[in-house]
Amino acid sequence: MRIRLIASAALLFASHAVAQPQHGLNLMPMPTSVEHGVGRLAVDQSFSVAIAGFKDARLERGIDRFIADLSRQTGMFLKQKPVDSPTPTLLIHAVYGRDRVQSLSEDESYELVISESGAKLTPPSPLGVLHGLQTFLQLVETTTNGFAVPVVTIKDRPRFPWRGLLIDVGRHFIPLDVLKRNLDGMAAVKMNVLHWHLYDNEGFRVESKRFPRLQEVGSDGLYYTQAEIREFVAYAHDRGIRVVPEFEMPGHSRSLLVGYPELASAPGPYKVEPGGADAVMDPTRQETYKFIDKLIEEMARLFPDDYFHIGGDEVNGSQWDANSKIQAFIHSHGMKSNQDLQAYFNQRLQKILSKHHKIMMGWDEVMHPDLPKSVVVQSWRGQQSLAIAAQQGYSSLLSFGYYLDLMWLASRHYAVDPMSGAAASLNPEEKSRILGGEACMWSEWVTPENIDSRIWPRNAAIAERLWSSPEVQDLGSMYARLDKLSRRLEWLGLTHRSFMAPAFYRMAGTNDIFALRTLAEVVEPVKDYTRMNSLKTVWDFRGPMNRLVDIARPESDQARRLRDAVQTYIGSGYKDKAAEGEIRTRLAAWRDNDARLHPLLEQSFLLNELAPLSEDLSTLAAAGLLALEYLDKSTPSPSSWRAQQLALVERAKTPKADLLLMVVEPVQQLIERSEGQPQKP
Amino acid sequence: MRIRLIASAALLFASHAVAQPQHGLNLMPMPTSVEHGVGRLAVDQSFSVAIAGFKDARLERGIDRFIADLSRQTGMFLKQKPVDSPTPTLLIHAVYGRDRVQSLSEDESYELVISESGAKLTPPSPLGVLHGLQTFLQLVETTTNGFAVPVVTIKDRPRFPWRGLLIDVGRHFIPLDVLKRNLDGMAAVKMNVLHWHLYDNEGFRVESKRFPRLQEVGSDGLYYTQAEIREFVAYAHDRGIRVVPEFEMPGHSRSLLVGYPELASAPGPYKVEPGGADAVMDPTRQETYKFIDKLIEEMARLFPDDYFHIGGDEVNGSQWDANSKIQAFIHSHGMKSNQDLQAYFNQRLQKILSKHHKIMMGWDEVMHPDLPKSVVVQSWRGQQSLAIAAQQGYSSLLSFGYYLDLMWLASRHYAVDPMSGAAASLNPEEKSRILGGEACMWSEWVTPENIDSRIWPRNAAIAERLWSSPEVQDLGSMYARLDKLSRRLEWLGLTHRSFMAPAFYRMAGTNDIFALRTLAEVVEPVKDYTRMNSLKTVWDFRGPMNRLVDIARPESDQARRLRDAVQTYIGSGYKDKAAEGEIRTRLAAWRDNDARLHPLLEQSFLLNELAPLSEDLSTLAAAGLLALEYLDKSTPSPSSWRAQQLALVERAKTPKADLLLMVVEPVQQLIERSEGQPQKP
Asked: What is the pTM of this model?
């Protein structure tokens, strides 16, 4: 699932206007309804949990985890196990149990009532218990008297039943411990599907006992054993997360064909190394379906979920065009195109999946009049195709707008709503076919080291979009809560914040990384497919990933804060002294940073490329400070000075070392405003 | 192993004088010999390892780990496996294999020769391979052209064969993943023994199949299963680390007696909860030895190491005194004291251990004329007892001076040499009985969250003392290398640095933790047993561990840097402008910190107690700045002002919130010096 086109930005501007309840609680995703009371319930060492109603080992494990999480979060040693008490701090009462295999239709709602004397969590099902416990954890505050949760009544249920995260382990292998901590993060924001993109051209990551050459020659030795997968799926299930496997066919499957070249549409041989052919399976041969049948039989047992993703995107027709037997097949079967051939392939695939009790899923290219409507369509190409799928009767999911690898800001993902755009004009029945969406973490530029930082915290904004009411839109509130959440996620072992210091240390080769960090905090990796497109020849992702572009966060908090302060300052007619002071402090630090960073830049091959960027930062900051002087004194800046500075601004807009300097735009505003005719924004 | 007495500081001042080779390499522990060449060997993506000579699965796993570590350290995707090439980047040639059970006498030496065209690691045994690979990792530098290692010839072997770290999992349970990352840290500094203090009064942490009540009622449910222990011991063995279990007898064993009170010297019942009796086993009953025999038989199989520690320290005689049957036994057997009874117990214990092919170890109280010389004595009470043990013919180990829980500075541990003090006057044969030493991490104030920060980086200074030549003494070099090492350890997953931010966030309940961090960086927890002694009634360690004293690092780098700068400034006759500038910058930031921190302090029950400390810091910093003014202008400060400031200094010396403000002493120096008669230091 990969595209070279730049996604259209047209649909993706944020909507700021819609109001929402401002209850001041740091909850993410925002619950359906929150009724605020007065007072607090203390959370101290006497904290206890009791279970009434339904109870099983899985529920008990969930509660054990909750107690451990609460212990970690508060630094208190709490009672390890639920107690048998009529007056526990938290009483949990679920009505019925869970299916052996978590289903799409399972009730996830819960009600959490907190009074000064105790809390009650009463969901119908254990899934609601898990969600309610996450809400409880987010409610715990550090107060003047101790830890506490506010008196509150929360009723909550998800807007969409399918709230997923795709992780691609094909391009770069991601070890299970890294995936597990990300499952913990998903559970914290109430996401319920891990879409496991298990292989791609670059590597096959699942052990097959039936076809061992899949992992043996189709990978670099890095894959998951079946025992590991079983344990991982159980880990996810414990956390209320379904695992939907993706087995890409007929394209994106070079690694599968390395060991079984006879299934390909051209002779081979194939290698997992980059630069090889963009191989496609041959849908005209019986052997292909025999192989797929056996593979799916084996994998259907390994992955208990009802759904099974077969990819189906970006099929490169060149191998089919070049194969006369395949072309003859197309004609003899009355097909008009390669698309028809793929539809034929998908139909047969669907029957195989159905035989093994699986519901087929595919990317939006699989849509075809011949395909049964039971197939679930995942839209990556646009909101248009999502609407079409729903119109045609397919259940569908949105991923367009949720690609984490494109390095968009959280606000941009947040503005993408599965029901907006083309879907807005669907009728209710059509709308009901839209199941939700999935964030996608494609791993071309992702390693076990930086993956957490690519997923978090931005993924939480998508999780909120898929869980909360569409009216929840306020960006100020979203960022405030995201910031809190981001820190909370560290208690789960996620390294999206902590991974940076060791990486800076590697880059600098010295302990004084202050100036490097300062620069790193105001840059962002280039967006969309700019970095991919800059690859000169073949797409090869095996190179080192130790440059600042691999470490810098997709979204600069510092730049956002500068933007906000500049907005406030301009909005106040240059009178807001607090905002001015904040701008001044930031700009002064950046102005002086290059002098501090420069000696480092010269010592390290990894920092060398940052010299122009560091210079730009200091130059711009100095210009911004001068502009501020003019504005402060209400003296118009000389136009020649402005022209000169704006030329610098333009220069600073060019990406350098695959990085964007994110303070350019607010500084530009200051310079432009210093012309001396204060305008209302 | 615990003491209420303040350890004598007499032996423990640092020796600064001894010279050492200054080759400028960031190696820790310092190798035996380093011959510096010219040039470098590049470490890039073509990096490869080949194995000649001896080869087995364990060695190959070690090399796989090395490649993974090097990949992580450099951010490069390196070849996963050793290659079959005559010209690899690194050729490893071991002569012979390892024993199934790692022995004390195994050769750990290695030779590492790096030229511009390749590196050769030629140790006799795989243990040397592991050590040499760690040295190689430490040699990798970030240069202007890429990663590289310098051309160098290193010959290295340890000074002592026993270089251990004790971790107490009795007081607070430490999960295996935390222990494992600490094993990785130990391997990085070439330590080779984990002394696993498996239980204490507060909890029994090993599963016994024979006596399941040990873990079932003797713990809070937190213990290691036998399968986990086997896997853990294998993990350690892979890293060249022996695991020596400690089963405390006859004292410090309340948790053992909870399930088996019939073994105690008083009727019981016993509980793991604090406040219970300081129970001691009854050495006069046959049943006691039958139980021990069976338990040791079971545990001897679980822990393959030759050595088995039986504790034997701090036996509280009160239960024996109060038991007339025991007193009668003492008299009827011609014993003179409880000590004699314990010696009798130890003799019988030793026979049981011997039957199960184990060498007995015990704390220094076990020494007694009746005890065979095969027993290994571990000195915790002083260097005197180490010398006595060696004189009497016992093999012995030093732990006195290496207690990490006492919150000493690294320099203070570093100054403790097993061969110094009383041991200095031993004859060569006696000296040869001193096997080495062990750092001790007692866990009264330790949790899975903060344990890494209590062990690292200080433990590395002890590791160097036990590995390197006694001439390696320079504190400047030690701290420079320790600082580098501390950052490298993060690549192994140790959280001694990264755990602080989430903890500050918990304390503050807000994202702006800058001022809190500033304060935290200049304080240290109170030393020795001050915190323990401040416990009013019983020793209860189950309370929350979320105060700053639980988070602040045992050694303040910021305070050390201020001390160094003040030393330099005074030493220069107040002329060194760089030092003066550094002092000024630090003091100015601290002076302004209280204003910034104050609003936070009022919002959180965890920060409240820090108000006086924060005030002291700002007041002192302001005084220091004024003193600096006087010194800078060569104007004597008014004596009334000085008196006033020195009164503040005295006030600031009192611990607050169990914390010491570590900048007091250098500020005091500045104030005193501002009297105006510059003295040579």
From this structure: 0.94
